[in-house]
Amino acid sequence: MENAATKPSKPSSNISEIVSKFAKVCKLRSIGVFPSENANHHQHHHHSYCDPNNNTPPLAEDSSDVTEETECDSEKIHPQHVEVLSRSNVCGDREIMKLFDIVSALKLAYVQLQEAHIPYNPDKIIAADQLVVAQLEALCKIKRACKERQFRNKAKFLSSASSHLQKEIQFSEMLLEELKSQVKSKNSEILCLRNELQDLELGNMGMVEKIRQISLEKKNASVLGITTLEDIFKAASKSIHDFAKPLISLMKASGWDLDLAAKSIEDAVVYSKRSHKKYVFEAYIAWRMFYGFTFRCYNVEGVMRFDDPIDALTEYPNSDFAKFCAEKYLLVVHPMLEASFFGNLDHRTFVLSGKHPRTPFYQIFAKMAKWIWVLQGISASIDPKAKAFTVHRGSKFSDAYMESIEAHMERAAEDEEQATTLKVELMVMPGFKIGETLLKSLVYLSELKS
Question: What is the pTM of this model?
Answer without folding.
Answer: 0.51
